[in-house]
Amino acid sequence: MANSDPIHVGVLFSTSGATATIERSQAFATLFAISEINAAGGIHGRELVPIYYDPQGIPRQYQAFAERMIRDDKVNVIFGCYMSSTRKAVIPVVEKWRKLLFYPTPYEGFEFSPHVIYTGAAPNQNSAQLADYMTRHFGARIYLVGSDYIYPYESNRIMSDFILEVPGGKKLAERYLPLDATEKDFIPIVRDIKAKAPDFVFSTVVGKATRMLYQAYADIGMDAVKIPIASLTTCEAEVAEMGRRIAAGHITSAPYFQSIGSERNQACLRNFRQQFGDEIEPNMCWEAAYFQAQLFAEAMREAGDDSYEALLPRLLGREYQALQGRVAINPANHHTRLNPRLGRVNEQGMFDIIAESVAGGVTPDPYLVTHTGEEWNTLQYLPEAMHG
Ligand code: ACM
Questions:
Q1: Residue 180: what are its φ and ψ, rounded to 5°?
Q2: CA distances to 12, 52, 306, 330 from 9, in Å
Q3: Is 105 in the pocket of ligand 1 (CB under 6 A)?
Q4: Rounded Cα gap, residues 4 and 26, in angstroms
């Protein structure tokens, strides 16, 4: 007789804490995919059942809940994590139990676990393109500001390397603020930015402090059109929190923006809103969380089983038509071939896509082995980009 048991899967994103807004979008994207998979008959008639806990943005709670999901709830697969500190806390758990983590967030690269599938951008799929665009259009004197943890330290190091290769490239300052920084903490930073007058600011501030940085930047009279803040993480979720007046003119590098005009993307956004309302703003992390769950379901349909040993060979090399375009899991490094884009916030609080990848995307190179940039900078600049 066919197995009709439900399949439990872990959903490990925070709905409280510093990164609650963005992680809630990832959690709901995962639930959206699960509901579509179940509506289409599940996996050979077996229903996917999400197991959810709120780790509140705290790495040791991610670790404890990952352990609980695997040991007590018997999940083989976890969809989860935003901050790199939390992913690094979960990896030893999935490795110990021989399970699989799907991680849908851009991050600093320089990592490989055989028990992780990375579906967000690696630095050669977002930082390289951003550095190239910003230095051509604004200049290479850069001010770095970030949250105080591993992703910002490492991303700033990588961005600095790219910038210092450009003639005249200079790092004017590198500053860090705690994840629970408050409004007043940003005042000395933006004063210093104003005094140093960089060509652009590179922000690796994440979570609820993002709004505070952009707000303080506007309040002190910095003009986003002339000296924009460039980011790898500031997306529709944070733009909605800060408001379009403050966000307009700033630039983000990501494979996905809501404004992608394809009928498939727009239909998917309508379906999501119908089911989950307007509170969640779909964004790059939402899209990765959505496609990775769909890609998992396809692989499991073929494998017939969600054990690590059965699933992994079906995942490696697998292609999927995502909302951003075609993606594929790289068998050598478990990262994903993605479609880099650059977006600039417009007066409506949406991203105008100013550049997008041609030639079917960019192969992930998480260790930046191919350090020439030429293979990565396959961006086509769209007409709006000429105004930069
Ligand atoms: C991040 O910490 N990877 C955004």
A1: -100, 30
A2: 10, 9, 9, 23
A3: yes
A4: 28
Residue 334's alpha-carbon distances to 285, 362, 381, in angstroms, are: 17, 14, 29
pTM above 0.70, yes or no: yes
Distance 107 CA to ligand 1 centre (A): 5
pLDDT at 193 over 60: yes
Strands 141-147 and 170-177, by their bridges, are parallel
pLDDT at 380: 77
57: left (phi over 0), alpha (psi -120 to 50) or beta: left
pLDDT band, very low/low/confident/very high, at 386 (cuts 50, 70, 90):
very low
Domains 7-121+262-337 and 124-259+340-385 share a fold: yes
Distance 67 CA to ligand 1 centre (A): 21
Percentage of residues in the chain having pLDDT higher than 70: 96
Average pLDDT for residues 112-135, to the nearest whole number?
A: 97
Q: Residue 375 has what pLDDT? A: 64
Superfamily classification of domain 124-259+340-385:
Response regulator (3.40.50.2300)
Which DSSP category does 278 fall into? S
Q: Is the pLDDT of residue 378 over 70?
A: no
**Closest atom of ligand 1 to CA, residue 105:** 3
- What pLDDT is recorded for position 370? 77
Residue 101 Cα to ligand 1 middle (Å):
15
Which CATH architecture does the domain made up of 7-121+262-337 adopt? 3-Layer(aba) Sandwich (3.40)
| Binding site membership of 83 for ligand 1 (Cβ less than 6 Å) | yes
